[in-house]
Amino acid sequence: MGKTRSAPTLNDVAEAAGVSTATVSRCLNSPDRVIEATRQRVMDAVESLGYTPNFAARVMAAKRSFTIGAIIPTMDNAIFARGLQAFQDQLREDGYTLLVSSSAYDPEAEREQIRTLVARGADGLLLIGHARDAGIYEYLERHQVPSLVAWSYDPEAQRPSVGFSNADAMCELAQSVIAAGHRRIAMISGITEGNDRAQGRVEGVRRAMADSGLDANTLALIETDYEIERGAEAFRQLMAFVPRPTAVMCGNDVLAAGALREAGRLGIRVPEQVSVTGFDDIELAEIVSPALTTVHVPHREMGRKAARELTAMVEGKSEGRSICIGTKLVNRCSLAEQHG
Amino acid sequence: MGKTRSAPTLNDVAEAAGVSTATVSRCLNSPDRVIEATRQRVMDAVESLGYTPNFAARVMAAKRSFTIGAIIPTMDNAIFARGLQAFQDQLREDGYTLLVSSSAYDPEAEREQIRTLVARGADGLLLIGHARDAGIYEYLERHQVPSLVAWSYDPEAQRPSVGFSNADAMCELAQSVIAAGHRRIAMISGITEGNDRAQGRVEGVRRAMADSGLDANTLALIETDYEIERGAEAFRQLMAFVPRPTAVMCGNDVLAAGALREAGRLGIRVPEQVSVTGFDDIELAEIVSPALTTVHVPHREMGRKAARELTAMVEGKSEGRSICIGTKLVNRCSLAEQHG
DNA sequence: ATTATTGATGTAAGCGCTTACAAATAGGGT
DNA sequence: ACCCTATTTGTAAGCGCTTACATCAATAAT
Q1: In this structure, is the CB of residue B37 within 7 Å of any atom belonging to strand C?
Q2: Under a CB-based contact definition with an 8 Å cutoff, are residues A223 and A216 in contact?
């Protein structure tokens, strides 16, 4: 005797508390619309039954999920970790849950993930960078899912974004490289196709060169995946160039760490023989030796601001503003003066 | 004229294709139960309407979500990254989606996340380590959600697990430290409370010492959070001990990286003056200098096997076996002979 | 020709929740 | 006393899907 023990439903709670399901629902979702005594009774029932609301049912009935989706290019390295963590923290503070998935830098996979997240009832989406098929935005509009772009700031874009100017930030770093006397500059960039951040960083270096009267076409550029080993390979290739570059600017810290490692293997001293720079200022930048001169991106600030803006959009409190985050040069040990 | 453009439903597709909703559903979920011609017509309708099934509705009706949840202690560093990636890859191959959340090493938060994941309809759960309140397992049982423990292997436990023996692995490394002549051994461990992996690693060191006739009580032990800076702090404390330890074994590579960094700041040469070891063999271990002597954990293998076992459990094909993964010592440069 | 069998499709009953609306109750003003 | 408003609670209609069961046609077996 006794029914099979199985997960209790709203109905079970209602019966146990001697009220209607509507009242239980109200106790859970808008407690102030229920009188104290009733609420107490309901909460006791919830407690003693060990009731957990069924999420799918709630989403379906309420057409709200209090869930935000984020699609990032990769989880493999720490590039997005800190910013995403901050994004999530802020979201949680505001009562939202974050669903993350990664696209492996593949537009097709990204489209797929977006559909999945929307199907799962995400109230809003965080996307990385602007470059993306227009159809995706139409799809999101049709499903009435607001989206926000991060890690990139482009006031020209019709889509709201929270981020920084990759070009300006990299340009500033490049100016400092040039100011240190470097003339033969090389760059190890991430794959620029479909990646406005990588594109911006390359553009920044070119602009700094042009502004200083250097021929931007002399930039020795290698594009490769954002992986340590890829950075190492690219560095090796670069070191074979004649004449050899005196400064290798990397698209991010991961690539720079790879370059540094390869320099060690090749017996090339950094920064005495070759200078190396990074971008992002993730934890790695401080661990490697020599510690990286890089561009510090305030990821936590970006994450928090993105969260606030996106929830405002979801709640109809904002039409979607664009927010610019400032970056800062960090001078550590991997960039040195070049004479000659 | 013309209705408001909004997301199409199963019903819209059914109308467009001139069939019932049941048929559309079958086309999507068991295509072979529908005749070719009909399927074609339905698929065309799906395509042209840009239909995406509503996940919540599907979960609710089918009581299956093809979603697996994983709660990991932290996403901050790379400890779990590779294993989780492999877990996800295998899951995707088998038609499942992974939902990840992190508990920040807080049991209360973990319980909360588990409830959330279950409420979201997770078909199965991946948990890290065995140490956890029994009530949680009861809850999971009641909701009929199978769970699998990873990153730890304990044939004694009543719960199935896929992992390795943290104690054995660390013991082996400690033996090698002792064999190198070290007698004054120190350890920087993660917080052991509620963390069977950290406990196991400490136990492993103690066992190796006892086995070699050393007094395990002479082990200088500091427990701290798994963060680079914490590792650095602990290392500094350890270096102030008199007599100073000649080998510092760290609970993982992150802590070891911190120790290495602090050694650099203190001007202590590793491994000439002090040896340092890690655990995990994450990417970091190879990047730092000197490269870490550590224990290699085949994270990818563990992730994939965990995924296969868990889906088997979800599909009722397995009662939950425990699988032991082998670890391997990696001798790099941070451990040296100690004479005297 | 008749009936049994098989396969394709339709019908409709939920899944567990939220919420518009209705109902009931309790004051407040006259 | 009366009516009006405000507050608390109940009633019941879905949300978009899956699936057990019913139906129907086509084929095989008698």
Answers
A1: yes
A2: no
A contacts of B97 (beta carbons < 8 Å): 116
pLDDT at A1: 36
pLDDT(A125) > 50: yes
pLDDT at B100 over 90: no
Residues A80 and A225 in one domain: no
Closest Cβ–Cβ partner in B65, B143, B284 for A7: B143
> For residue range B165-180, what is the model confidence (pLDDT) as tens digits?
999 999 999 999 999 9
Q: Are residues A101 and A181 in the same domain?
A: no
The pairing of strands A294-296 and A275-277 is: unpaired
B193 and B292 fall within a common domain: yes
Residue A82 domain flag? yes
A258: closest chain B residue by CA = B287
Interatomic separation, CA of residue A20 and C1' of nucleotide D10, rounded (Å): 6
Domain-located, residue B275: yes
Average pLDDT over residues A320-333: 96
Count the neighbouring beta carbons within 10 Å of the beta carbon of residue A31: 12
The verdict on B202 and B320 lying in the same domain is no
Vertex A76: Cα angle to A72 and A81 (nearest 5): 60
Do B177 and B278 lie in a common domain?
yes
Is B311 domain-assigned?
A: yes
Query: What residues pair up with A302 in beta bridges, in sequence order?
Result: none
B172 and B292 belong to one structural domain: yes
Query: CB neighbours (10 Å) of residue A133?
Result: 13
**Which pLDDT belongs to residue B2?**
38
Range of the domain at A147: 66-164+299-325
For residue B330, tell me if it sits in a domain: no
Q: How far apart are CA A256 and CA A278, in angstroms?
A: 5
Place of tokens 């965080």: A126
Same structural domain for residues A193 and A155?
no
Paired sense of beta strands B185-189 and B247-250, if any? parallel
Looking at CA atoms only, how far is residue A300 from chain B in angstroms?
13
Work out the minimum CA distance from B201 to partner chain A, whole angstroms: 25
Total Cβ atoms within 10 A of residue B65: 23
B19 touches strand D (CB under 7 A): no
Strands B220-223 and B185-189: parallel
* Residue where the block lists tokens 């009935």: A61
Same domain, B121 and B238: no
d(Cα B86, Cα B73) in Å, to the nearest integer? 17
- pLDDT computed for residue B322 by the predictor: 96
